[in-house]
């Protein structure tokens, strides 16, 4: 082994990302409720656009993503010039860290925040700073108190993953207004589409110079496998991010499929209301079995158990029935399991199995 070939500082502190499991040894009929995917998949219009793109595989894709940005702009009432598209919103998070944080800088994320913030901060050589939440809810005062002259980025997922909780517009505005001058507030709206009437923070972006919003096609639009996300922010910041964006970061197929998906708001709306209905049903069913959860605004619920060992025993029990949910000890929630809202049959199966587990049928 060479002693002089070494990665950049921070890289070796990154633990390899653990994705949601999708197989159970010896069980063929599994229901995957571990990655917050849309159980109904993408809209038929999106699938059709993907099929059509297969005839253009020899062509290089657009570098400026103009058609997709225009579609997003029309649907959300946003200026396409201030939209950037990436390989999932993960790539936008990465661009932000690479462009705005480096050695000596601090990147704030919340206690139970999404793993990518820490990974991207470390990849950029910056120091991730974890700030406590209040009963699994983003705590604006704690974040403001943690800011220093070195704070460059503050990441908030709203709704948050894996807690499912969110904070309101006044709190977001107070946070943006209270940050030190050199810091950018990033509002990760991966689950914003699930909240009726919520703009993901777009209006706050328009009102200020220090707020960026990220969004994704991976959740409500059912395109996690395609890898498309986007960001919306002040023109100056979007121009900076575009400098490090690979010119062909999104494929023809990704661009065309995402455009068709965002234009099919009738389907998006159907998925949103089905999710709300089943989420309310599942939360209540679990509560009746003695498993509480915070009111979720996303497409999953965070089920709380009495202890880590009970949560793990329940996870094992579910797994034996082919029901794959997510352990979240890595998010400092060892006594919880995150359960994606599946279709009606899956929700019923999960509720039934957890009822059996709690009833002592182990
Ligand atoms: C799923 C998720 C994303 C989306 O990631 P993509 O790269 O767009 O698939 C972003 N942030 C949070 C909090 C998420 O849970």
From TrEMBL:
The keyword Amino-acid biosynthesis appears for this protein: yes
Q: Does the keyword Transferase apply?
A: yes
Keywords (alphabetical) are: Amino-acid biosynthesis, Aminotransferase, Histidine biosynthesis, Pyridoxal phosphate, Transferase
Positions of the Aminotransferase class I/classII large domain: 29-354
Q: In which pathway does it act?
A: Amino-acid biosynthesis; L-histidine biosynthesis; L-histidine from 5-phospho-alpha-D-ribose 1-diphosphate: step 7/9
The similarity annotation says: Belongs to the class-II pyridoxal-phosphate-dependent aminotransferase family. Histidinol-phosphate aminotransferase subfamily.
A GO molecular-function descriptor: pyridoxal phosphate binding
- Indicate the enzyme's highest-level EC class: transferase
What's the catalysed reaction? L-histidinol phosphate + 2-oxoglutarate = 3-(imidazol-4-yl)-2-oxopropyl phosphate + L-glutamate
Q: Which HAMAP family match?
A: HisC_aminotrans_2
Entry's InterPro entries? Aminotransferase_I/II_large, HisP_aminotrans, HistidinolP_aminotransfase, PyrdxlP-dep_Trfase, PyrdxlP-dep_Trfase_major, PyrdxlP-dep_Trfase_small
Q: State the needed cofactors, names only.
A: pyridoxal 5'-phosphate
Q: What is its EC number?
A: 2.6.1.9
**Organism whose genome encodes this protein:** Thalassovita taeanensis
Q: Name one GO biological process term.
A: L-histidine biosynthetic process
Q: Which residues carry this modification: N6-(pyridoxal phosphate)lysine?
A: 219
The protein's name in its UniProt record:
Histidinol-phosphate aminotransferase
Q: Name one Pfam family in it.
A: Aminotran_1_2
Tell me the organism's taxonomic lineage: Bacteria, Pseudomonadati, Pseudomonadota, Alphaproteobacteria, Rhodobacterales
Q: How does it assemble?
A: Homodimer.
């Amino acid at each position: 082994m060479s002693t002089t070939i070494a990665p950049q500082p921070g890289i070796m502190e990154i633990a390899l990302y653990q994705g949601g499991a999708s197989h159970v040894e010896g069980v063929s009929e599994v229901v995957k409720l571990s990655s917050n995917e849309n159980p109904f998949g993408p809209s038929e219009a999106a699938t059709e656009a993907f099929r059509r793109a297969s005839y253009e595989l020899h062509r290089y894709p657009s570098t400026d993503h103009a058609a997709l940005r225009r579609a997003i702009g029309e649907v959300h009432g946003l200026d396409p010039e201030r939209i950037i598209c990436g390989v999932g919103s993960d790539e936008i998070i990465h661009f932000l860290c690479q462009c705005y944080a480096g050695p000596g800088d601090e990147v704030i994320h919340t206690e139970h925040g999404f793993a990518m913030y820490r990974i991207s901060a470390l990849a950029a050589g910056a120091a991730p700073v974890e700030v406590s939440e209040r009963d699994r809810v983003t705590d604006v005062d704690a974040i403001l108190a943690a800011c220093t002259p070195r704070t460059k980025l503050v990441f908030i997922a709203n709704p948050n993953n894996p807690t499912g909780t969110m904070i309101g517009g006044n709190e977001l505005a107070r946070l943006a207004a209270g940050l030190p001058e050199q810091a950018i507030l990033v509002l990760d709206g991966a689950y914003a589409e699930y909240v009726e009437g919520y703009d993901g923070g777009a209006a706050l972006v328009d009102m200020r110079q220090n707020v960026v919003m990220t969004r994704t096609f991976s959740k409500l639009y059912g395109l996690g496998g395609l890898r498309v996300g986007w960001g919306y922010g002040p023109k100056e910041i979007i121009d900076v991010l575009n400098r490090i964006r690979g010119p062909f970061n999104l494929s023809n197929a990704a661009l065309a499929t995402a455009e068709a998906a965002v234009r099919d708001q009738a389907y998006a709306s159907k998925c949103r209301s089905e999710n709300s209905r089943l989420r309310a049903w599942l939360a209540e069913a679990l509560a009746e079995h003695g498993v509480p959860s915070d009111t979720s605004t996303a497409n999953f619920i965070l089920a709380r158990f009495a202890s880590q060992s009970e949560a793990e025993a329940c996870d094992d029990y579910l797994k034996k029935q082919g029901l794959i949910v997510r352990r979240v000890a890595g998010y400092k929630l060892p006594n919880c399991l995150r359960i994606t809202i599946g279709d009606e049959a899956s929700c019923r199966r999960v509720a039934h199995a957890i009822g059996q587990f709690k009833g002592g049928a182990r």
